[in-house]
Description:
single chain; Cytochrome Bc1 Complex, Chain D, domain 2; 2 strands; mainly alpha; two-stranded antiparallel ribbon; 2 domains; disordered N terminus
Amino acid sequence: MSMKATPTPVKVEVIEERIRSNPAYVAKFKAALPDASINIDTVAEAIAAFERTIEPAVAPFDRWVDGDETAISDSAKRGFELYNGKALCVVCHRGWRFTDDLFHDIGTTTTDRGRGAVVKDDPLLQFAFKTPTLRDVTLRPPYMHSGAQVTLVEVMKHYEKGGIDRPSRSSLMRPIQLTDQERQDLIAFMETLSGSGRSATAVPKQQ
């Protein structure tokens, strides 16, 4: 069975109720669409309006690839070598968007079965979650699907340990040993993937 990413269906009523039950979202809706009610059509309109504001920013990594050797630090350059070699990051976080768009169980501590909640008959999809892009990764803490890791250092240490050993854990997950310097170099590289002028989008907390 393919592990390609496809959306998990959510009932329209569930989406509408989640938004109506969150005072922060209700306030934002009233400010943006004072004469409209909260329903799937206005939710779609709001999402579309947000998506139109998303424009790709040129990151230091992009400038380096284009030939500007001063765009990233020597530490970041060493991190790029580690990323494509010893650290094995590129196996899943590959391509220009730094993701394979597939689902993997990376051995996180969780009761959430991830893709396995939908595809129950595929043992390899239990506890599997989609590989996120690393573009703008420094603007999107906390990390992992549950936000269990607050910093990139914590993320690195999870991968170094190899995650929880269980039947569904990806065969790509294996313990590795990184020095403090190598860890710092990897993070320095990932920091080059964030475009200038961007700030993290504040998401209202679920009540």
